Request: fold
Amino acid sequence: MRTFAGVEDEDKWLAEGIAGIQHNAFFMHRALDANNLREVLKYSVLMLSELRTSKLSPQKYYDLYMRAFDQLRQLEIFFKDESRHGLPVVDLYELVQHAGNILPRTYLLCTVGSVYIKSKQAPSKDVLKDLVEMCRGVQHPIRGLFLRSYLAQVSRDKLPEIGSDYEGDANTVMDAVEFVLQNFTEMNKLWVRVQQQGPGTVREKQEKERNELRDLVGKNLHVLGQIEGVDLEMYKETVLPRVVEQVVNCKDELAQYYLMECIIQVFPDEYHLQTLDTLLTACTQLMPTVDTKIVLTQLMDRLSNYAASSPDVLHEFLQVEAFAKLSNAIGKVIETQLEMPIVGAMTLFVSLLTFTLRVHPDRLDYVDQVLGACVVKLSSVPKLEDARAMKQVVALLSAPLEKYNDIVTALTLSNYPRVMDHLDDGTNKVMAMLIIQSIMKNDSCISTADKVEVLFELIKGLIKDLDGTNTEELDEEDFQEEQNSVARLIHMLDNEEPEEMLKIICVVRKHLMTGGPRRLPFTVPPLVFSALRLVRQLESQDGDIAGEDVPATPRAVFQILNQTIEVLSSVPCPELALRLYLQCAEAASDCDLEPVAYELFTQAFILYEEEIADSKEQVTAIHLIVGTLQRINVFGVENRDTLTHKATGYSARLLKKPDQCRAVYACSHLFWVDDLDGIKDGERALLCLRRALRIANAAQQMANATRGNSGPVTLFVEILNKYIYFFEKGNPHITPSDIQSLVELINNEMQSDNGNTTIHSDPFFTSTLRYIRFQKQKGGLMGEKYDPIKL
Reply:
């Protein structure tokens, strides 16, 4: 029994062992040079006796073993040359068996046995059988493992496999397989016994040492996987049952896990598929402490890759009913291993789903079955808090999206939303973002109200506050990104049938209205524009679409829009609500719905009066109102007069004089619309311009009173440009003398400020004068109009 000493002691013992090997190897080489067989055997036994130590750890023992191994290679070369030692190989094989100690004797026997097989003076199977039996004499775990590893190494190129020099009547592939299996069985028994060396206080160190030794055992399985002539039938009937029997019967956690991993890695995928029953049965018989999930995951990953390698192999999966067998095995493992953490079960389901999507992509029922099993397992847990398990659930839900590149397919899976319900709020949002990104990436169009309902249930974490969440705690950039994603999603909902599209809009509105004041400003505008798209679709259709018996009418859509924007205006977000009211009013005008357009304008004016107090926002709102009203031609005289009167009144009551001036001259366009059917009231347009001129003059006087100079004349120049516009458009009330007077007024204003021109207004005014000169010189009708103006 080896005592566990310190590192320094082991280093000392290793150094002593290496010194002993080098010392005896020196004399062995001297005997080799002299072709003195007796002395060669004497010193080789002394050299190999250094491997009898029990003081070294596996890692240190390996260093010692490699020193001896290098010398054994030289010894083998000597044994091959009969002319040097003078003995037939058969006699040499008998001679080395007289060595005093079992360990040096067996090493020498393996070395001479390698030469004996190569000489072909005896069937290789007989020599191999003799060697593997002789190695039973060394039962110390570490010494025995390295001895048998040496046997496996020197015999690897001498196995009687198909195509080798040692294949013949007396030697078959089966003999090679039998030798490797027997050596593997004995090595595994020795490896398992390592854990029984020493008291329980050193168990952790022992396990680490056993891990270092595992490759010695696993090499046998690698050799089995490389033997030429091991066909499926032999593998199925002999190799796998023998290996699995040893794995199951050893009752050792580390050995079972490592050897099952080796089986999966070293043998061909098609063999795994045809022996799936045996492998899965073995998995269910492993020790409860073995991490079976990794074994099964590796098996499913290999089979998945095999299925993806060629479409020609898919029928094999159907023949063996691979999905049913894997699904049942996973169910049994999860059921029997009660202590398996939830992340382990989720990992298994992810691998099974990956396998299903690769092998049976057309079987959505299989996909839903896996998700259903996941739901059952998740339901047994009070709350999913393990971050790793959460990550696996996200991977499970992402797999169908990546495979089908179509969220519509995922929406048909009944268990998909049930799995999402088990995610925490943060992960639910991550998954919802992945769903939206998938839709955007694949340009998917969701075209039915039922699917939209399911979709918005899936992404509910983004469109409303879930239980226990507070939007105030969210990072502002993340929140905006989430809501912008939802906004983009709304534009992906479309249907050519107006009735179905109206249903979609109603479903979306129902969900969005639960979003709270922070979300509505992001999500309502795309909903409004989606509905306006439907309005224009209805407008372009032939026939009477405004009848009361038709469910999808522009009037019905505008009712929904009015209610939706009204909610937004109470958030409060009056500026955005006003813009949307004006957009809807313009759309109503295009549909010849004067009452609807008037009502929408009324709501916009109410918002302006009651909610918009900031002067800058008022200026923006006024220009939006004027611009929209100017484009609308559905109003009758009375309604239009009412609205234009309101607009001009609001313009004149703005706080700052320059803002008043610009808003009032903008109102002049309400009375002169340059369309065939547009209103053309030149007198009222001129009144607006004169009113703007008076306000500009007042602004100049205020500037002169407060700053000591009249300031820039930009307002006068802007009004001059409006005069020129209406003059060219044919307003009979604007004459060349009006333009002449305004030019002179601007010149006087500019010269009154100590004769200096204002830098900012001068280029604008200069450009305007240049334009007038150009029109005068151009000739024709326009030139004649401009001719009376003297500059």
